[in-house]
Amino acid sequence: MAKKDYESRTEAMLMPIVEAKGFELVDVEWVKEGANWYLRAYIDKENGITVDDCEEVSRALSDLLDEEDFISENYILEVSSPGLDRPLKKEKDFARSIGKDVEVKLFKAINKEKEFVGILKAYDEDTVTLEMEDETEMQFKRSDIARIRLAFFF
């Protein structure tokens, strides 16, 4: 089974669990780090996710995964908050972030720069537009973006 299959099947199993609790499913990922495989689910809610919330969802998901048993590899299941620096991946992430500061990291440099911070002004399936500090706009092809996430200044 492919990575996308693991992620999509897990997401389908997880949606009823998080919706019943009034949570949002932010993302599911299947990744290998070192010698270990990880199945990670990121959940959120309006005032933030607690450790108890993560534990409840993890137990319910773990039971379903044991029943379905579609993952042949050994893996570690993690359920957590996406954190403050959550990446923008889905349509709802971009919509929620319009007008907010975001950080864009590119695969290849533009004018010797790979990282840009600006206000997310617009997006579509092919591009992302930021308003820069000098009030000019920069448009990036989504295929050129390695990572885009909310920017926080401390």
From TrEMBL:
Its main location: cytoplasm. Residues 88-152 form the Ribosome maturation factor RimP C-terminal domain. GO terms for biological process: ribosomal small subunit assembly; translation. Residues 13-85 form the Ribosome maturation factor RimP N-terminal domain. Keywords: Cytoplasm, Ribosome biogenesis. It holds the Pfam family DUF150_C. The keyword Cytoplasm applies. It is found in: Cytoplasm. GO terms for cellular component: cytosol. InterPro entries: Ribosome_maturation_RimP, RimP_C, RimP_C_sf, RimP_N, RimP_N_sf. Belongs to the RimP family. PANTHER family: RIBOSOME MATURATION FACTOR RIMP. Required for maturation of 30S ribosomal subunits. This is Ribosome maturation factor RimP. The lineage of its organism: Bacteria, Bacillati, Bacillota, Clostridia, Lachnospirales.
